Every structure is written in structure tokens, then in C-alpha cells.
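Entry for cytidine-5'-monophosphate complex. Fields follow.
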Amino acid sequence: MVIAVDGPAASGKGTLARKLAAHYGFAYLDTGSLYRAVGHAVTSAGHDPADEMAALAAARNLDLSKIDERAIRTAEAGAAASIVAAMPPVRAAILDLQRNFAHNPPNGLRGAVLDGRDIGTVVCPDAKAKLFVTARPEIRARRRWLELNNSGSGITEAQVLEDIRERDRRDAERAASPMKPADDAHLLDTSDLSIEAAFGAAVAIIDKALG
Ligand code: C5P
């Protein structure tokens, strides 16, 4: 039983997906953290994120248990992630890992929630329920800026908005698994919703989809 939650940066999909996993008793995988970990591994080793050989080597060596959660949450890691994520060999290298998690959730759990950009279209096209979570770019920039500022980053809100627009463009326009809603995905715009209201709307959609 797989629930796919896709959408752009800071749309609220991660918070929603985590809450949905707890609600249904499913395992949770934040697939963006995989691309972030690859981007971070490449840049912290002194390579350009556009260096495909370095990115592929990092993707092949990716170890879920060794991801440094703090290091991958920076704006730089997010930008590097969207560069390495446009490389088909990098995506191929971590596709099996994602599918394996979805079809054999850890700890004997009976389902999984995966969030990302291409879960409903490419990673798990047969997912029982698919959500595509969006929010206006200005709202997303405000949320991400607050998050980054809480962790002590000096970045401005205008810079975060610019980064988000650039990342949206790169994610939506790339040839390999571009970010887009699956034909059978339910759209959920969280711009004017509290976390609780968005969660309630998501559960209503998913309960119906799971029957
Ligand atoms: O979701 P998050 O912002 O952490 O994702 C970081 C980057 O990883 C995205 O901008 C996108 O380029 C990439 N990504 C992807 N496919 C996914 C998840 C994330 O291409 N399934």
C-alpha cells in the first residue's frame, strides 16, 4: 500500500507526508533527502554539483543510515540537489532504493508514504493514493525562510524566493522525471490552509482512494 505525495519545495508536502505516515501506521521516506545527500556529498568533497561522474559515484555510495540531516537542510544542499537530480544516471542509481522501500517497508509496516517530485509519475505509478501538494511561491518562500532562519542562516526572504523559483524551474523543465502531477493525482493547494486543515483535506482524499 503506497501513498505518493509530490510537489514543489516548501509546499508542505514533507510535513503532510510525515503526518500521514503516522496516521496510517506506514513507513515514511523523504526522497528529497536522497538527492540532497548526493548534492551535499559532491559539494563537500570540493566538486561542482554539475560534475556528473562525482554525482553518480555519490549516488551509488548513498547509505540511508549515514545521511547527515543537518547538513542536507541548507539552501546550498537544496540547490545542489536539484542540479544532481536532473542527471538520469543519478536518478536511475537511486530508483531501486526508493521502490524497494515502497514495496518492502521497514519494520514489517504494511504500507509506505513517499514524498518527492516524481513518486506518482515514475517511482510508484501504481500508488493507491496520489497527492500533488502546491502553494503559491511567495507563501513557500516565507515558510522556507522561517525554517532556515530558525537554524541560524542569514539568508533573506527575497533570496529564498529567488532560489525557490529557480529550483521550480529546474525541477519542472528537466527532461528526466520532471516535476508534474500524475494524471490521477489529487491537487491540494495549502497556500491558505493551516497544517491541520491541509492534513484533514489529505486524509479525506486518501480515505476515499484507499476505499
Ligand atoms: O523535497 P526537497 O526540496 O528536499 O528536494 C530537493 C531536490 O531534490 C528537489 O529540488 C528536486 O530537484 C530533487 N528531487 C527530485 N525527485 C524527488 C525528490 C527530490 O528530483 N523525488
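NOTE: The two ends are 12 Å apart (CA to CA).
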